[in-house]
Write a sequence for this structure.
């Protein structure tokens, strides 16, 4: 699992949505755990970029596990399609079951990804140690099932200790930042760490466009 770390509004969720839609277009499956955005907001937000996930939801290729609306509304928008509470232990059990059942359906585990958006809501709502243990266990589950994962966390909302613990618990970290250069706002990202693999760690400029994240190569 790779951790996407950056300030609020830098495009972490859009990056995950765009990556997820590319997987879906290639015939893969996406398990999306939402702790902040309501399922309706995710669907509508993706549709604004031209990423219509409704057909993939109908075929169960795009599965939203909703931990946001039970916490905010008391009742899930996603009744009948998967709902969670903001309980790390319970979430891990449900996610493990989803991974196990999805692995039997998908011949190629490379076509399956899991997105956790975001860890920040868990850190703000649950016991710190329980969240760190949850992320570490989830990373191990993904390794065991040979499944890729993305998790987002908001930099600036937590102490450095929490961010360092999350980085240690994940297989890699991608950092996003926004720099002010005169009247211009420059968005940049880089692969900060990638355990066991060589990588290019230079900062790359990117912009948020009507078609998603546009990265300068």
């Amino acid at each position: 699992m790779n951790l996407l770390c950056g300030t609020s509004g830098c495009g972490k969720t859009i990056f995950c949505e765009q990556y997820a839609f590319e997987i879906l277009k290639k015939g893969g499956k996406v398990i999306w755990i939402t702790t902040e955005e309501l399922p309706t907001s995710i669907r509508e937000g993706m549709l604004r970029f031209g990423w219509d996930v409704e057909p993939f939801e109908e075929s169960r290729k795009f599965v939203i596990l909703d931990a946001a609306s039970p916490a905010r509304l008391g009742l899930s928008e996603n009744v009948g399609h998967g709902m969670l509470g903001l309980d790390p232990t319970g979430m891990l059990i449900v996610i493990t079951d989803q991974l196990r059942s999805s692995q039997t359906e998908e011949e190629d585990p490379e076509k399956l990804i899991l997105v956790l958006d975001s860890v920040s809501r868990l850190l703000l709502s649950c016991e710190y140690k329980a969240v760190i243990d949850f992320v570490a266990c989830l990373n191990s589950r993904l390794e065991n099932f040979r499944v890729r994962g993305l998790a987002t966390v908001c930099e600036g909302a937590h102490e450095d200790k929490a961010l360092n613990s999350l980085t240690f618990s994940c297989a890699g970290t991608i950092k996003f930042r926004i720099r002010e250069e005169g009247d211009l706002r420059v968005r940049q990202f880089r692969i900060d760490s990638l355990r066991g693999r060589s990588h290019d760690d230079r900062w790359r400029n990117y912009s948020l466009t009507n078609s998603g994240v546009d990265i300068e190569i």
The mean pLDDT is 89. Residues 88-105 form the longest helix (18 residues). The domain at 2-215 is CATH 3.40.50.300 (Rossmann fold).
